Amino acid sequence: MFTNEQRQEFISQLTRIEKRLRRIRRRINGPPSRLQTLKDLAAAEAAFRRLRTAVLSRCVNTTVGTSALDDDPDRKKQLAELEDVFGQFA
């Protein structure tokens, strides 16, 4: 379903998210730094959201983008709006 390039991109993003989570764990186990912990949590959440949106976008483009509807500008606009909605609220 994903190309090798996409897989590498996703793995790279996951690795960065894992590093952020390890940093958060160290902060929680170490001396209290509540503000920085909150910043790290927000950064990890944003990175995860970007990854989820990228995966969704690839899935939608692969599933629907290869259909005969590719030439329909209204359909492309609807798909872009769908991706935005999932990116914001999913």
Report on the architecture of this protein.
The model has no long low-confidence stretch (mean pLDDT 82). Helix 1 (4-29) packs antiparallel against helix 2 (34-63) and helix 2 runs antiparallel to helix 3 (73-89). The longest helix has 30 residues, at 34-63. The chain has one domain (4-89): Up-down Bundle (Methane Monooxygenase Hydroxylase, Chain G, domain 1), CATH 1.20.58. The chain is mainly alpha-helical. The chain has helices at residues 4-29, 34-63, 73-89. 81% of the residues lie in helices and 0% in strands. It is built from three helices and no strands.
Features:
mainly alpha; 3 helices; single chain; 90 residues
Please tally the helical runs, counting DSSP H or I stretches of 4 or more residues.
Answer: 3
In CATH, the topology is named Methane Monooxygenase Hydroxylase, Chain G, domain 1
Low-confidence stretches: none
**Residue share in β-strands:** under 5%
Q: How much helix is in the residues?
A: over 70%
Global structural class: mainly alpha
**Overall strand count:** 0
Could you report the average pLDDT, rounded to the nearest whole number?
A: 82
Q: What top-tier CATH class fits best?
A: Mainly Alpha
Number of domains: 1
Distance between the termini: 21 Å
Based on CA atoms alone, the radius of gyration comes out at 17 Å
What pattern of helices and strands is seen along the backbone?
Answer: HHH
Main beta sheet: none
Shape: elongated
CATH architecture: Up-down Bundle
